[in-house]
Amino acid sequence: MKCVRCKQKAKILLKRHNAAFCNECFLYYYRNQVTKNIRKYKMFDKKDKILAVISGGKDSMALWDVLVKEGYNVVAMYINLGIGEYSNRSQKVVESFASKNNLPLIVKDIKKEFGLDIYKLSKTLKRSPCSICGSIKRYLFNKVAYDGGFSAVATGHNLDDEAATLLGNVLSWEEGYLARQAPVLPQTHPKLIKKVKPLYTLTERENLYYVLLNKIEFLHEECPHSVGARSILFKEVLNKLEEESPGTKQRFLNGFLEKGRRHFQDVSEKLELRECKTCGQVTTVEECSFCRFVKICNQQQET
Ligand code: FES
Ligand code: ZN
């Protein structure tokens, strides 16, 4: 097996591209994909200040490293969500990468800073910890980016994540979610910062290979709450299809972005956006869920 670019011995085969690469050319391919995605969707440019959300897993660590190497103005943000040892271990990984490479990092701790506890909230509101965690993260991504004058929030979502989300949304015809699934979510309100996914064409396997080649430390374990999640099942189904027919995930996602997505634009709920009466962040109700969460946790502490 020869590298398609330099004809030396190849180290990794990417069946969906019908291509094999040596390590050096893989890194070239990888960085090229990322910069192409950024340009294609006009995600940001070198003048913009980018907030990269880092969990400590391979995807976000790869995102952080590649954006820094490509010369973007990146500040990383890590959120400690109070998920026991998993959170402590991931915080260490992120902090050590920042200090080794002398990179700016914002750390938010939802318990220390806001008194939030996703387990208490999950019990009181009868919602899964993941859905509470998701709301908190989305709120903080935007709030930190808005307060800090950032132009975009970048996340490490990969091709596998995006194809699995798409499959889930198609299976239950979630029109609103389908309308909003894209590599870029543009600013629809002056206080809502653009969200971007520069790795959306790269697979989990490619992100893993990238961090291994660059000797980047990352947290190997997934969040304990992801066990049994529907998204994992969707990923398994897509992996089966991909094995039989390489390129399936990519065709599914790109086909949707190019041909399918536009059909959902006018059915996307026209939710009225307003500012939260407590914190001023954008919401669709009087008080945003984050502020309600803070109240619930503080009340519980008092009693
Ligand atoms: Fe949020 Fe797992 S990362 S519940
Ligand atoms: Zn609020």
From TrEMBL:
Zn(2+) 1 binds at C3, C6, C22, C25. One of its GO terms (molecular function) is transferase activity. Keywords: Metal-binding, Transferase, Zinc. The keyword Transferase applies. InterPro entries: Ncs6/Tuc1/Ctu1 (IPR000541), Rossmann-like_a/b/a_fold (IPR014729), TilS/TtcA_N (IPR011063), tRNA_thiolation_TtcA_Ctu1 (IPR035107), TtuA-like_LIM_N (IPR054306). One of its GO terms (biological process) is tRNA wobble position uridine thiolation. Zn(2+) 2 binds at C276, C279, C288, C291. The keyword Methyltransferase does not apply. Residues 50-222 form the tRNA(Ile)-lysidine/2-thiocytidine synthase N-terminal domain. Residues 2-27 form the 2-thiouridine synthetase TtuA-like N-terminal LIM domain. It holds the Pfam family TtuA_LIM_N. One of its GO terms (cellular component) is cytosolic tRNA wobble base thiouridylase complex. PANTHER family: ATPASES OF THE PP SUPERFAMILY-RELATED, TRNA-5-METHYLURIDINE(54) 2-SULFURTRANSFERASE. This is TIGR00269 family protein. It comes from Caldicellulosiruptor changbaiensis. The lineage of its organism: Bacteria, Bacillati, Bacillota, Bacillota incertae sedis, Caldicellulosiruptorales.
